[in-house]
Amino acid sequence: MARSTGRSGRTGAGEGGRARLRRAAVAAATLAVAAPLTLAASGDAGAAETAWAAGMRSIVFARYDTAAPVEDLYTVSPLGGTPVKLTHTPTVSDVMPSWSPDRKRVAFLRYGSDGAIDGIWTMAITGGDPKPVPGTQGASDPAWSPDGTRIAYSKPVGGEREIYVTDLDGSPNTRLTTTAEDEHHPTWSPDGTSLAYSRADASGHSRLMRITLSTLAQTPVTLAGSQDWTPDWSRSDWIVFSRVDSTGFAHLYAVRPDGGGTHRITSARAHDKNPSWSPDGRRLVFTRGGTDDADPEHLFLVRADGTGLTQLTTADSHDLEADWRP
């Protein structure tokens, strides 16, 4: 893959100038089909689709193109249409968005044109009232807790990145991991008692890990020697992630938090990354890109069983790091 998988994932291949700056700015590290996910009873298919559409919520994502000096945040309906621009910052880039559980604010990473990370901010869904989260300079991968009181993130400590959690006012700023590897992209369990994240070692491999907040006990979810990135934990207790598998492409996979039931969801000759669950856990939004940094990257939707693939954005741009409104 020719460019970063976003949200601190990469595949290890070379990147173009802007992609290199973006990767440096977020200190990125480098993604046999079993039974599909068990969905709720389908009943009448048409009625199910109507019910889903009625309960849909917006998707927020980061966009950049070669003509723009910075990246901004946009929202788009799961049914498509023209994306709405949320941020208009001519001198800084806004990336890695995460919806608050009450759907009133978005957390995101802000960095300057020189690649210096300003830290994590929050803002109203209208794009106004921006506020920095104290103590998060250099951080990335913000993830809002299910109760809306805390944000987990990845932050450099010496030569490695570790997982932290903080209240919105920046206190306490609590370090959760202490390892010789790089920890990236935390995602909360539905009950808020655990986090899953990706751990990258010195060889360039990455596996999924799980940490229990009350004890700080860490448990592997996927195997060592994998290329597993950007997990997202659903309310139905599945973790979706992006894996570079034996095909050489990044595909979406799902796994139970205990490591069971691992199976592939997508299988195209393309790179699929940055997956995010729909609020009902029945669908995913993700970025699909080509093998060259110049290729556009678009948002796609897919059902949790791998069917119903739909392209959501079509602009000649890079659309990344989507988060589906809770």
In short:
This protein has about 325 residues and is mainly beta.
Q: Secondary-structure blueprint of this entry?
A:
Blueprint lengths: L16 H9 L19 H10 L4 E6 L7 E6 L2 E6 L6 E8 L5 E8 L4 E8 L6 E2 L7 E5 L5 E8 L2 E8 L5 E3 L6 E7 L5 E7 L5 E7 L5 E3 L7 E6 L5 E6 L5 E6 L7 E2 L6 E7 L5 E7 L7 E7 L6 E2 L6 E7 L2
Antiparallel strand pairs: 1-2, 1-24, 2-3, 4-5, 5-6, 6-7, 8-9, 9-10, 10-11, 12-13, 13-14, 14-15, 16-17, 17-18, 18-19, 20-21, 21-22, 22-23
Describe what this molecule looks like in 3D.
It is built from two helices and 24 strands. The two termini are 30 Å apart. By secondary structure, it is mainly beta. Helices cover 6% and strands 44% of the residues. The strands form six sheets. A four-stranded antiparallel β-sheet has the order 3-2-1-24, with no helix packed on it. It has a four-stranded antiparallel β-sheet with strand order 4-5-6-7, with no helix packed on it. Strands 8-9-10-11 form a four-stranded antiparallel β-sheet, with no helix packed on it. The longest helix has 10 residues, at 45-54. Mean pLDDT is 84; it is low at 1-55. The protein has helices at 17-25, 45-54, and strands at residues 59-64, 72-77, 80-85, 92-99, 105-112, 117-124, 131-132, 140-144, 150-157, 160-167, 173-175, 182-188, 194-200, 206-212, 218-220, 228-233, 239-244, 250-255, 263-264, 271-277, 283-289, 297-303, 310-311, 318-324.
